[in-house]
Amino acid sequence: MSWFNGKKILVPLDFSKESHQAVDVALEIASSAADVCVIHVASDLAVSSPEVVWEVHTDEIRRKRIEESFHKEFADEKYRKLQFFVTFGDPGHGIADYAEQTATNLIVMPSHGRTGITRLLIGSVAERVLRLAHCPVLVLRN
Fold it and tell me: Domains in the chain, ordered, with CATH?
């Protein structure tokens, strides 16, 4: 019996290769795929986005497209029982807030390893989650 038997694990997903690997790591740790929740925190449209330039999309349309992408990318049988949630806003705060609201026991997430000016301009979601989360955070580095 694993320590994680029945414990909730949250995995932030930005659809990168690293976040996909974090989902796989969470599935290895969890006693069941049903104990793993994957969250995607979409940025607000105020940030320069192609949707703003070409056409206006409501959050509901964006949510449906993100959910379709998730189900397409994670179509394999081993992902069938994963829970998936989409929200909008700042990823660091959104992940930490959702983890607290759902009494998550562990957050598993990648670090993209940005350094220098890129890190200063973009910031580090993993760093914000580490500071804000109420539960342990496992940060995976490549």
Answer: 9-140 (3.40.50.620)
